[in-house]
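B., you asked whether I could sanity-check this one before it goes into the benchmark set. Here's the sequence:
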Amino acid sequence: MELSSYIRLDGFKWPLLTNAIVNLALGITVTHTYRLFLIKQGWLSLPLVKLIPRAIIMVFIMVSILTAINIPLDRITYPFFKQIEITFGFLLGYFFNLSKFVLLWTLTYHLFQYWERSLLAENEKYQLQATAKENAYQNLKNQLNPHFLFNSLNSIRTLVDADPQLAKTAITQLSGLLRSSLHTSNKKTISLREELQTVTDYLAIESIRFDERMHCEFNIANDTYDCQVPPMMLQTLVENAVKHGLATRKNGGNILLNTFKENNQLILQLINSGQYQPQENQHGVGLENTRQRLHILYDENASLQVKNKDHEHVETLITIPL
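And here's what the prediction gave me:
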C-alpha cells in the first residue's frame, strides 16, 4: 500500500508527525554541526578550488548519516516500509533523494556566506580608502599652516625695524588669523563666508607691507556666501598671488576675486597682477596642495586651472560642485 493510500484511509497518524519532527531535528542538527565544523576548520576563508571538494565530501557524510537514520525510522513509522526489501538499488535511490535537499541547503549556505564576505570585504575596502583619503587630506592641511606661517612671519619681519608699531599690529592680526585656522582645523569644508574672513585677515597683514602698492577688489555673489569650500584653500591661492605676483613687481599690483554659481557649480575666479610660468614651478606647495585636496574631496568633479589672462595678469579658476 502506498503512503498516500495509507494516509487517506487511516487519517492523521501520530507516527507521521513523529517522523517529520525527527527528520526536522535531525536535519537541523546535521547542518548546524556542519556549519560549526566549517567555522572551526576555517574552511569559509578558503578559495573555491579548495572549498568545493571538501564540501562535496561533507555532503556525502551528511547524506550517509541521514540515510542510515531515516531508513530504520521510516520502517518504524510507516508500516508499508516493512514490506520493502532493502537492496543496493533502494539504498542508492534513497541516498540520492536525500542528496538533493542537502545539496540545495549546502549551496544556499555557501552562496550566502560568499555574498556576506563579499559585502564585508567591500566595506573594509571603502573604509580603508576613506581612512587613506582622510589621512592624506590631513597631511595636506598640515603642510599649509607652517607654509602660511613662514610667509606671514617673513612679511612681518620686514616691518620690525622700519615700523615697530605696524609690526605689533601685524602680529595681532596674525594671531587672530591663526586662531581662525585652529577653529577650522578639524573641518573638511567651511562656508565661503568664513574663508573670505581668513583671506581678508591675511590681506590686512600684507597690506601693511605693501602699503599703497596692493589694491584688492571682491565681487561676491550673495548666493555664494554659504557655499562650502575647503578651509585655507582660497587663502592659499591669494597668498600665491601675493608672493609670486605682486611681490615680484616694483609697483605691486591688483587682486580681483569674483564668485558666482553656474551649472550647479561654485565658480571662484581670482585675477592678480603678474605672470604664470609653470615650467619654473614658481608656485611651489600651494597649487599642488590645492589640487590634491580638491581631488580627495570631490574626485573629478572639481577643478583648478591657472593661466595667463594677458601679459599683465594671471587668472586662477576653481570649480566646486554644489
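One thing to flag: The longest strand covers residues 253-262. Otherwise nothing jumped out at me.
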